[in-house]
Amino acid sequence: MIDVSLVIPLLNEAESLPELCSWIVRVCEQEKLSYEVLLLDDGSTDNSWDVIEELAKANTCIRGIRMRRNYGKSGALNIGFAQAKGEVVITMDADLQDSPDEIQGLRNMVFNEGYHVVSGWKQKRYDPITKTLPTKLFNWATRKMSDIELNDFNCGLKAYRNEVVKNIEVYGEMHRYIPVIAKWGGFPKIGEKVVQHQSRKYGKSKFGMDRFINGFLDLMSLYFMSKFGKRPMHFFGLLGVMSFFIGFMMAMWIIGEKMMHVYYWHDRAPLITSSPLFYLGMLAMIIGTQLFLAGFIGELVSRSNPERNQYDVKQTIN
Predict the structure, then answer these.
(1) Within 13 Å and on the Cβ side, how many CA atoms surround 99?
(2) Which of 137, 138, 98, 139 is nearest to 120 (CA)?
(3) Disulfide engineering: 187 pairs with which of 73, 182, 194, 232, CB 3.0-4.6 Å?
(4) What is the rounded distance in angstroms from the CA atom of residue 74 to the CA atom of residue 121?
(5) Per-residue pLDDT at 268
(6) CA within 13 Å, CB half, 154
């Protein structure tokens, strides 16, 4: 097995690729590391693939993988993780904002200090406040929900043990949450390293403001799937029972009030349907029933999944 695999997803980065690869090769040779560079062209519309072909011809340690269309960063990373052969797998962006000089430091933290995942922290950033402020809010929310003390979940510069990338799945836009996925996948030792951030030299950013909305929704989805993916009744069933019980108590209150009017106070009781509480109670019971049925159907679907009872075993002793 080689020392390090560099997994680099890219989209329309033809200008930066020669400089980036030259920098990576120089660092790895100076540090005497055996290496491979996986350049994952995620549906580029410029001449990025032509540049990758030239680089691969000049250096057999550089490999190119061309996606049929643009699947997103997570899809490219998932393909790269499946192909990576290094003991340590390092991801970085292709826009030269991540410094290859960090390779040895990241590798040492994984290989020598025993971390499963090491995430880069761009403590000093060269981005506008419209990007840095939402990023801080995003990182704060992720820390609170995942209980992982990282300052920069979205940094593209990360290092992993090989077994980590072979046992996790990245899809959608989950690349922001790989440390969270790793922790919930049984790899809890997660560290952080301050890394150098460089201003973009070529091209423009491929991400807009919608990534923060999508990121929050992905975090909620990831949290739900990790907690209740194999037991949906525990979530929907509990909410359904609570909602139905609240609605039922509202209905009992209205019925009890009417009986008090008729049997004890001997006056004309108001119509049950004239009370707003009646409609709120009915609504709560209907929603509760629907939630319970959603959990029941989810449980039936989950039980028919052949992977329902598959678990990762770390080690066995004969």
Answers:
(1) 16
(2) 98
(3) 182
(4) 20
(5) 72
(6) 19
Single out the residue of 270, 276, 93, 265 nearest to residue 195, CA to CA.
Answer: 93
Terminal C-alpha separation, the chain: 27
> Residue 183 CA to chain centroid, in angstroms?
11
Query: If you count them, how many residues does the chain have?
Result: 318
Residue 75 pLDDT greater than 70, yes or no: yes
CB 7 within 8 A of CB 90: yes
Q: For residue 311, name the pLDDT band (cuts at 50, 70, 90).
A: very low
Query: Do residues 181 and 168 lie in contact, with contact meaning Cβ atoms separated by under 8 Å?
Result: yes
The Cα–Cα gap between 194 and 124 comes to 9
Amino acid at position 99, single letter: S
Q: CA 79, CA 81: separation in Å to the nearest integer?
A: 5
Please write the tens of the pLDDT for every residue from 103-141: 999 999 998 898 999 999 887 766 665 666 677 777 887
Q: Are 232 and 295 spatial neighbours (Cβ–Cβ below 8 Å)?
A: yes
Identify the burial level of 131 via C-beta atoms within 10 angstroms of its C-beta, where 0-12 means exposed, 13-18 middle and 19 or more buried: middle
Exposed, middle or buried: residue 65 (CB in 10 Å: 0-12, 13-18, 19+)? middle
Residue reference for tokens 């560079």: 37
Helices (H), the chain: 17-30, 48-58, 73-83, 103-111, 129-146, 162-166, 178-184, 210-228, 238-259, 276-303
If you ran DSSP here, which 8-state letter would residue 274 be given?
G
pTM, to two decimals: 0.73
Instruction: Tell me the per-residue pLDDT of 128-138, one tens digit each, with 9 for 90 and over.
Output: 656 666 777 77
* CB distance 5 to 90 below 8 Å: yes
